[in-house]
What does this fold into?
Amino acid sequence: MNTLSAGGKAARRLVVVDVIAYVVLAFGIGLATAVTLAGVVLLLAQEAQAAEFMPMRPAQAQQGTLLLKSEGSTLAVPAVATNAEIRVSGIVARAVVRQTYRNPYDAWFEGIYVFPLPENAAVDHMRMKIGERVIEGDIKERQAARAQYEQAKAGGKRAALVEQERPNMFTTSVANIPPRGEITVEIEYQQTLRHDSGSYSLRFPMVVGPRYIPGTPSEGQGHGWSPNTDQVSDASRITPPVLNPDKHAPTNPVRLKVVLDAGVPLARVDSPYHPIVMRETDGGSRIVELAAGEVPANKDFELTWTPAAGHVPQAALFSELRGDKHYALLMVLPPAKEVAAARLPREVIFVIDTSGSMSGSSL
It folds into this structure.
């Protein structure tokens, strides 16, 4: 049995998530109906003393991911740090993404951050850190959570709201960020991995790409560069302005760590878009990190690995204890195909009859 430590407490205990149970939990109350009942997480903290807004000229941002707004004004913030830790157990990945909001101004603001996640990700947990204080999140329907968020914001409380705009796009709103203050939002999600031609792949999206917005403009309600239209009613929520990386480098620096426990011996591990460093642990897992330490969020990270095929089938068992119940995931790999040393030459002849005697119109 292959094992993996969970939370630093159980020795090498494999974290395998009951995918169906969590999908029902996360999607059943919001994520599956992203257009009308998108999954949201609402956080409420202690009251924050209100402060008068200091008028400032909004930055003329060509690109950007975080906006600070107060009383109708918006200011682009170039420095938003992202730290991602992903644990792979067989064909299931569990990720924790930490995003840090910094308010560089002497005023209270609401921050709105648009970020991508894998399209098959099921967000099931969120927490907000304000200094040493940690507040756990709660999952509600979008309209109810939005109303509660606005009520908390109006009351001077610190609150955070995560909403799914598209299967691979989420937004986070953080109310009442104090002057020169910092708030860290942690999002946890899980996903199944892609398998193709004998290889597995993990993709961590870092970019919200531009989207085609058809239709006639209507009144916008979000904070993006595009107004809502008669064909895309939420266009203003899915078109965030982004900062020019040549003028604001590094834009959203990202640190990433992957703990890879494939469960079987691997023939190769590749990262096609980012240089990586990799080391093996005593238990057989591999720890993968970015060679540069941190990189700008200008392209997706992808990790692929290929199991070493043997002459007999291979099996890996992953298990987890949650409460008083055990969950297990069994992964079975087929043996390598036996290929003859020399392939015999062959000839293929296609006969196509184009005469009018065939049924239908002639060619």
